[in-house]
């Protein structure tokens, strides 16, 4: 597994983030619109044709494989293709993760694209977000991999505004245990506990800041 | 939570599926292209403007909230907005779930949009897919909700062609235990065990077939 060094300044990172964020947001809008639209078949076919044209234009120059995980010389993480935090990935809400005194925290809103049961967040989406957030809390000094994670669903999580939090409860050598929750305005809807492992290769490696994708 | 009856024939379900599938596939392509494109800023801005126009056109007529979960009088499930199986949801790979003698099975391919570590599937995506698949295995007679799920990561799951399987190992009243795995060509990469609960209201309800979103 290879992390890519992007030899650019922090200002250039910010500038590129400013270019890709509105583009990806427009794709997030499109994902939502395709789920919820009630226009007729001709309009759907027309939309499809126009989307295919945009795809062809964007693909005239593209990287061979996935985006990978990049970082600058200042060790700012650029996980821009990441499924949970990627600023170039329309599948990601994206989670914007804030470091707080006892761990990490993220406020986000999930719309129609994250639905499982009617009007509720898919339980698998909750598991996905908690896996990422707990891993982020556990990666305070170096990136970690998830060993195991257990998610407990206390009640359905409604689509809409949510808050997730995670914190480390135990550390022992390369093993770390983290816990976390997702909450709506009424309180916790689901909680998780995970065991995370720091890879041997990372123990003496650079500390990369992964708060934002 | 309300399941919506769509009073349409099975032929009409198939016809609509045929209309939305290529449209959603083109959005999946677009998600991938936005992650991987290397075109210049003017071309990105142009793409954004064109996507925003399509969104506006699709939103001229749209449902108020999320898609919900629908079914026909013949109890064919239409979870078309679902985050894992929805044929109208570009976030979903989508999983097409096959019923096999001892449970359920799905073959699928995950590209750049599902990345976590470089070249690997995001661990949270594995958890999301397993949550859905185990829930599907447990829902053989009525829809279930996940109580808890534990995912164990044996090694990284590479992006590309994968197979997931799930089966019920125990059932006791309204409680069911299911297990499952995700595998690449070399074998199992991660495995899960979950406890699923059949809601009281569903015990005597209709049996809806949820194999496809």
From TrEMBL, chains A, B:
Matching SUPFAM superfamilies: Thioesterase/thiol ester dehydrase-isomerase (SSF54637)
MF terms (GO), sorted A to Z: hydrolase activity
EC number in record: 3.1.2.-
CDD domains per the UniProt record, alphabetical: PaaI_thioesterase
Pfam families reported for this sequence: 4HBT
Gene3D superfamilies assigned: Hotdog Thioesterase
Residues of the Thioesterase domain: 119-190
Keywords: Hydrolase
InterPro entries: HotDog_dom_sf, PTE-AB_protein, Thioestr_dom
Protein name: PaaI family thioesterase
Species for this entry: Gordonia amicalis
């Amino acid at each position: 597994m290879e992390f890519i060094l992007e030899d650019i300044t922090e200002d250039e990172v910010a500038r590129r983030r400013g270019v890709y964020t509105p583009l990806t947001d427009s794709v997030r809008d499109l994902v939502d619109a395709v789920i919820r639209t009630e226009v007729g078949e001709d309009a759907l076919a027309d939309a499809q044709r126009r989307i295919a044209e945009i795809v062809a234009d964007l693909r005239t120059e593209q990287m061979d494989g996935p985006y990978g995980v990049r970082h600058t010389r200042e060790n700012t993480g650029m996980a821009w293709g990441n499924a949970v935090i990627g600023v170039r990935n329309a599948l990601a809400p994206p989670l914007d993760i804030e470091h707080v005194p006892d761990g990490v925290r993220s406020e986000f809103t999930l719309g129609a694209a994250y639905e499982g049961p009617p009007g509720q967040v898919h339980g698998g989406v909750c598991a996905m977000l908690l896996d990422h957030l707990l891993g982020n809390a556990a990666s305070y000094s170096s990136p970690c991999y998830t060993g195991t994670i257990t998610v407990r669903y206390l009640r359905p999580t409604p689509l809409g505004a949510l808050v997730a939090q995670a914190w480390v409860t135990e550390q022992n050598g390369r093993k770390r245990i983290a816990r976390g929750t997702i909450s709506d305005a009424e309180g916790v809807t689901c909680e998780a506990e995970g065991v995370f492992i720091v890879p041997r290769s990372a123990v003496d490696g650079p500390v990369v800041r992964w708060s934002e994708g």
